[in-house]
Amino acid sequence: MAYNPNHIKAAYDEIAEREDEFEKGFSLRNEIPKEFIRRYIQASDVVLDAGGGAGINAIMMARQCKRVTLLDISPKMLELAAANIHQAGLGKKIELIEGDLSNLEQFGNAQFSFVVCVGGVLSYVLEKGPWAIRELVRVAKPGSILIIGCDSKYGFVRWLLNQDQADLDQVMQVYAANEYEAGEEAYAHLYTVAELSGLLQAAGCQIAEMASTPTLVNSWDQSEYPKEKREPLKALELEVCTAPELLGVGHHLICVAKK
Fold this sequence. Notes:
Distance between the termini: 31 Å
Structural class: alpha/beta
Radius of gyration: 17 Å
């Protein structure tokens, strides 16, 4: 399936409020990338948050760095991000831009000292993924850190196989195609660790860390966990998410790269 930005924009406009709620809730898919961001971000950083959605990560980063530019393809997501940012009192530190990850021509070379693109954003641009990675690297300053996420092939297939009444024929089709239908006319590419790290290396980066998450639990959302068990669960996930023998098993891949 070829990438169509209008399909992705329409899909995220439709689910924007649900995504906003999900970003504000507890899930390892959101919590583990945040921990990697906190580990590497510096107070002097000028950040690009590509595909930043409702702005929850941007708000966290703006409290720790110089300023953040949040790029997202969905006008509705940007509306919700604006409301969240206003409520946080960080409007002067976060700029909102409507745009497409596969076309970053509005940004100059080496404009940002820290680049974040986590969740499934990279997967949604399908065959334009390699170009999007080159663009994310282009706008990063030499020596800067990029934290790039995407959907994991083996993790997604594992999740499908563990669903009630899993359709093995459908699972095998997803496995062979390396993509799945995420919504009406919206498709996503499934990456392996080797593919993601290889694309970043080809774009001129060194790989600092690789992780996948959630690794041990087979669900997208862990909000059903009692609050007193969430931090221990996150600590356990942080301990295992970079284990070489488990890379790729989680639903999402996370790559920390240095330009």
